[in-house]
Design brief:
Elements: H1 2-7, H2 10-17, E1 22-24, E2 33-35, H3 49-66
Antiparallel strand pairs: 1-2
Length: about 70
């Protein structure tokens, strides 16, 4: 499966990302997910919205780059 092929590249992907990612096979479904949780702020903490947005954007860019040519 595509998930298994990507999972075999886990070390490379996480090295490129610069941290540990969550790998979720979603058994019984035709989907899977690989993600990084940004654990700061949130919608109820308006004073941290800007930094949370910056952190989220940074993580998304690193995640996209981590999967380039994999």
């Amino acid at each position: 499966t595509l998930f298994d092929a990507l999972l075999r590249q886990r070390e490379l992907v996480e090295s490129r990302f610069g941290g540990v990612l969550q790998w979720d096979r979603l058994e019984g479904r035709r989907a899977f997910r690989v993600f990084h949780e940004v654990c700061q702020g949130g919608w109820t903490h308006r004073e941290t919205w800007r930094q949370t947005a910056v952190s989220t954007k940074d993580a998304m860019l690193r995640l996209c780059e981590a999967f380039d040519d994999v």
